[in-house]
Specification:
The complex is a heterodimer. Chain A contains no helices and eleven strands. Chain A is globular, with a radius of gyration of 14 Å. In chain A, the strands form two sheets. In chain A, strands 2, 4, 5, 9, 10 and 11 form a six-stranded mixed beta sheet that branches. Chain A is mainly β. The radius of gyration of chain B is 14 Å and the shape is globular. In chain B, strand 4 and strand 5 form a beta hairpin. In chain B, strands 2, 4, 5, 6, 9, 10 and 11 form a seven-stranded mixed beta sheet that branches. A four-stranded antiparallel beta sheet of chain B has the order 1-3-8-7, with no helix packed on it. Classes of the chains: A mainly beta, B mainly beta. At the A-B interface, strand 4, strand 5, strand 9 and strand 10 of A face strand 5, strand 9 and strand 10 of B.
Chain lengths: 114, 118
């Protein structure tokens, strides 16, 4: 079953605006990762935030993690048309017998209009 | 550095036929994953290998799906016989040795194989 649930399911903005996507999950995690998927292609890793971190930056990306609320957000600043893609959060669950296993959410489809 | 390679990129078969997908991970990556991604959904893990051993295959439909990773490098995923609901993109990913709680469990994905079952 899907652990992460992204919100919104779809987001449409103009170039230059900021885009915020949210992710909620159900169980304790080791880390949470965000991936991007362009149409018809594989996923590309964007950023990883560990369970003991609250905020992380990478270029125009800002990720926050609130483990008490079991939620994360991805902010893309000054968006570009090339940011148009589907964005997925994925959680690496704490405990269990397997490790490095990721559970993906349903994704947010981001469309950035030129 | 070469990425994860997959073949074929596209495959169309009829139900009850067999199909096989191939994956070559990034050199030196001990962990290999196969995912199924149905249109409009996120990827779902089918099986995870660490070197040539299976770490997790809890979501693999073992009555029709099988996978192997001989010599701990390349891997093949087979479906026999295929059903209509197997239509999806099959993604292969690899990572360095996956360890519990490790902060570097980033996965690198191949382009995927789009399977259509008619």
């Amino acid at each position: 079953s899907q652990q992460g649930e992204e919100d919104p399911q779809a987001l449409s903005i103009q170039e230059g605006e900021n885009a915020t996507m949210n992710c909620s999950y159900k169980t304790s995690i080791n880390n949470l990762q965000w991936y991007r998927q362009n149409s018809g292609r594989g996923l590309v890793h964007l950023i990883l935030i560990r369970s003991n971190e609250r905020e992380k930056h990478s270029g125009r990306l800002r990720v926050t993690l609130d483990t008490s609320k079991k939620s994360s957000s991805l902010l893309i600043t000054a968006s570009r048309a090339a940011d148009t893609a589907s964005y997925f959060c994925a959680t690496d669950r704490a405990g269990g017998t397997s490790y490095g296993k990721l559970t993906f959410g349903q994704g947010t489809i981001l469309t950035v209009h030129p | 550095e070469a990425g994860v390679a997959q073949s074929p990129r596209y495959k169309i078969i009829e139900k009850r036929q067999s199909v096989a997908f191939w994956c070559n991970p990034i050199s030196g990556h001990a962990t290999l994953y196969w995912y199924q991604q149905i249109l409009g959904q996120g990827p779902k893990l089918l099986i995870q290998f660490q070197n040539n051993g299976v770490v997790d295959d809890s979501q693999l439909p073992k009555d029709r799906f099988s996978a192997e990773r001989l010599k701990g490098v390349d891997s093949t995923l087979k479906i026999q016989p295929a059903k209509l609901e197997d239509s999806a993109v099959y993604l292969c990913a690899s990572s360095l040795v996956a360890q519990r709680g490790a902060s570097y469990n980033e996965q690198f994905f191949g382009p995927g194989t789009r399977l259509t079952v008619l």
